[in-house]
Amino acid sequence: MKDERRAVAMMREAAKAALPQAWFIYGTWVHAGVGGIKSDLAQAALWIKKAADTGHEEAAIRYADILLCGIGVRKDAAAGERLLRQTIERGSWRAMNTLSFWYQSGSCGFRQDAALSTEWRNKADATQRTAPR
């Protein structure tokens, strides 16, 4: 527990240093209540959005989920889908997989469509295969 609290303090300092990866990680930790941090969904959403606004891929995908489901923010499925599609336009196969999941699961009220789910999963697979390692 002591090491976890120390890690949280270090990540908090890194987040203050304007590092998008630190903003994203700290936001996920605030969401989960890691290392003695009180879970605060609204505060977590702010940190994750801050990273997403820089184009950070993982943060953009997570913030799209946050918007879609209204986790710590007002639910805005249209804005979540728009953000996810912007991330796809930048070539993110992970965002394509997420969109496939949304279509497959109907997550948080997203419209289900098996054909579109398959189409996006196939696009994600093809993009991942050609992505630089």
Secondary structure: elements and pairs:
Blueprint: H1 2-16, H2 20-32, H3 41-52, H4 57-69, H5 77-89, H6 93-105, H7 114-130
How does this structure look, described?
With 133 residues, this protein is mainly alpha-helical. 72% of the residues lie in helices and 0% in strands. It is built from seven helices and no strands. The model has no long low-confidence stretch (mean pLDDT 93).
Summarize the structure.
With 133 residues, this protein is mostly helical. It contains 7 helices and no strands. The mean pLDDT is 93.
Order of helices and strands: HHHHHHH
User: What is the average per-residue confidence, as pLDDT, rounded to a whole number?
Assistant: 93
What level of helicity do the residues show? over 70%
How many β strands by DSSP? 0
List keywords for this structure.
mainly alpha, 133 residues, 7 helices, globular, 72% helix
